[in-house]
Design a protein that fits this description.
This protein is an all-beta fold. The chain contains no helices and 11 strands.
Length: 118
């Protein structure tokens, strides 16, 4: 059974870079056809797809966030990482990692709250 778990700091200062890691267990992030995704939900708002890294290592980003977003992976640790630069309070959200196959998302991590504040 594949499980995902997000980790990273819960508080980031404005203008800094937010960095989160998703650790995957029970399956390999290099398995064909799987895309490993970052999604966030700001308070009182809907889910926002941020980007993904494919089984091949190719990356895909939400155009609205592309200039600030980088997704990478460490296959030896079966982890993938989100970096979001130049954060503002508007980046405060619950951040989720999830597996995506043909735009069907699941399983999901439990989510991690990130607050941007000085």
């Amino acid at each position: 059974q594949v499980q995902l778990q997000e980790s990273g700091p819960g508080l980031v200062k404005p203008s800094q870079t937010l960095s989160l890691t998703c650790t995957v267990s029970g399956g390999s992030i290099t398995t064909d056809s799987y895309y490993w995704t970052w999604i966030r939900q700001p308070p009182g708002k809907g889910l926002e797809w941020m980007g993904a890294i494919a089984y091949s290592g190719n990356t895909y980003y939400n155009p609205s966030l592309k200039s600030r977003t980088s997704i990478s992976r460490d296959t030896s640790k079966n982890q993938f990482t989100l970096q979001l630069s130049s954060v503002t309070p508007e980046d405060t959200a619950v951040y989720y990692c999830a597996r995506n196959v043909s735009w069907i998302f699941g399983p999901w991590g439990q989510g991690t709250q990130v607050t941007v504040s000085s």
